[in-house]
Specification:
mainly beta, Porin, 2 domains, 4-stranded mixed β-sheet, globular
Length: 462
């Protein structure tokens, strides 16, 4: 825009606003000082706008976008095209003057309101713990037959509301550098860090993802390469089939080329003491990263993927190895139906399965370390009854192959859950859902408990 054109519309704006300030009142009611102060402010803003227009004078490139238009997994529609030889340097973003030239910003997230009533057959899940916010299979209380006492309680929260910020920069070579950061208000699943439900219901900010990617490489924290996020069902609960799901976010270095991806990821060994004489703990002694590899194929029919995991466990001077395999995918059955599934298992799958339902390793009487075997999976059917109404049926199970001579009888042997939901979308990006779920957990010594929950939510994505 030229200086002449800028003046053509800037001056009338000033006159119109000044007139608006005076005309509604009679002369004796006019605050002359306030009007003069407002005019001075407007003149300053117009000078700033003229300076901005002069900075873009003679440049044909449009201003980069500053608001979200696409999810972080897609290339932002507003990102400038790669610069050709001899082309002018892309302008800096006026909203972020320190950003690299040619950077497009995106922002998004959702607000999620959860309200649920839970009944547990053998005691109560501790208030303020993760199991009160979403289905956490290891939290289901257990007791001997006839000795448990049922309990019913309700919880309401908005802790899973989240936001993300992305920045895509196109280099002179035409390649994209992507930065992405995401957080929610989960606060580690406890209100002990930031507040309580007595007055303010404040919760701590939780880092979910923070990474940078370039030319096939990714460095930072994101979902494990061993996890297939795209296979997760459409649940009202935070995850849904928790016990049968590979679920892990952690720091990693990943390389992707075509359908293949490999990664080295943050190691952590969970250890069950001999005969469970003490609580399970994280060793903190790991020296080698967890290594993963994945192959995936996609089409209009859905997707199918296979992932492998190799680990080296260490606790003190004791060490051992483990490996696991996961097969998952989604099959589209026409326009209104799809099936989603996952099957995973192996020695040392431990903390990757079911929110660490089982331990990675167990110590024997001599202090030697043994990897633990576990298996899990889920199947989910999604059906769209109407364009704005859909439902899901989900079953999930995990089985842990413990050696009671090493672990004792107080560790989880099996957990399973079943849920059905209906989700209505009265407007774009707005979901109102209800879900009924049932779950049970059994220990090696035969103690068992079950859970029933009615869970509703309102979720608006932006």
């Amino acid at each position: 825009m030229s200086r002449t054109n800028a003046r053509r519309w800037l001056s009338p704006i000033a006159m119109a606003v000044a007139a608006a300030c005076i005309s509604p009142a009679s002369a004796q009611d006019v605050d002359v000082a306030a009007v003069e102060a407002r005019l001075v402010q407007m003149e300053r803003e117009m000078r700033e706008l003229r300076a901005l227009l002069e900075g873009h004078r003679g440049t044909a490139a449009p201003l980069p976008a500053t608001t979200a238009a696409a999810p972080p997994t897609a290339t932002a529609a507003s990102a400038p095209a790669p610069a050709s030889a001899g082309a002018a340097t892309p302008p800096r973003n006026p909203m972020m003057p320190g950003a690299a030239p040619g950077t497009a910003f995106s922002f998004g997230g959702f607000i999620k309101f959860d309200a649920m009533t839970t009944r547990t057959s053998d005691g109560q899940i501790a208030d303020g713990s993760p199991g009160r916010l979403f289905y956490f299979p290891g939290a289901t209380p257990v007791a001997p037959d006839g000795q448990g006492r049922s309990s019913t309680y309700s919880d309401v929260h908005a802790q899973f509301s989240r936001f993300w910020l992305g920045a895509d920069t196109v280099t002179d070579a035409g390649k994209t550098i992507k930065a992405y950061i995401e957080a929610d208000m989960y606060g580690g699943g406890s209100n002990a860090f930031a507040g309580n439900e007595t007055i303010t219901n404040t919760y701590a900010l939780t880092l979910r993802q923070a990474y940078v990617s370039y030319n096939g490489w990714l460095a930072g924290q994101t979902w494990s390469n061993f996890q297939d996020v795209a296979a997760l069902p459409d649940a009202v609960d935070f995850t849904g089939p928790s016990e049968g799901t590979v679920f892990s976010r952690q720091a990693q270095l990943r390389y992707t080329r075509g359908p293949w991806s490999v990664s080295v990821e943050n190691p952590q060994t969970t250890v069950t003491p001999y005969l469970s004489q003490a609580a399970r703990f994280n060793s903190g002694d790991d020296r080698l990263p967890d290594v993963t590899a994945r192959w995936i194929t996609r089409g209009d029919w859905g997707h199918f993927t296979v992932a492998g995991l190799a680990r080296r466990f260490r606790s003190g001077d004791a060490s051992t190895s483990g490996a696991a395999l996961s097969v998952s995918g989604r099959v589209n059955l026409g326009a209104n139906d799809d099936i989603r599934y996952m099957v995973s298992g192996g020695d040392g799958i431990g903390r990757y399965l079911g929110f660490a339902l089982g331990s990675d390793t167990v110590l024997d009487a001599d202090g030697r370390l043994h990897s633990q075997r576990g298996y899990g999976g889920f199947a989910a059917w999604r059906h769209a009854f109407l364009p704005k109404l859909r439902g899901n049926v989900i079953y999930s199970v995990a089985s842990l192959d413990n050696d009671p001579l090493l672990t004792g009888g107080s560790v989880t042997e099996r957990a399973q859950s079943f849920r059905v939901n209906m989700i209505y979308s009265p407007a774009r990006n707005l979901d109102v859902g209800g879900e009924l779920s049932w779950a049970d957990r059994r220990l090696e010594n035969g103690l068992e408990g079950d859970l029933q929950r009615v869970h509703t939510h309102v979720k608006y994505s932006f």
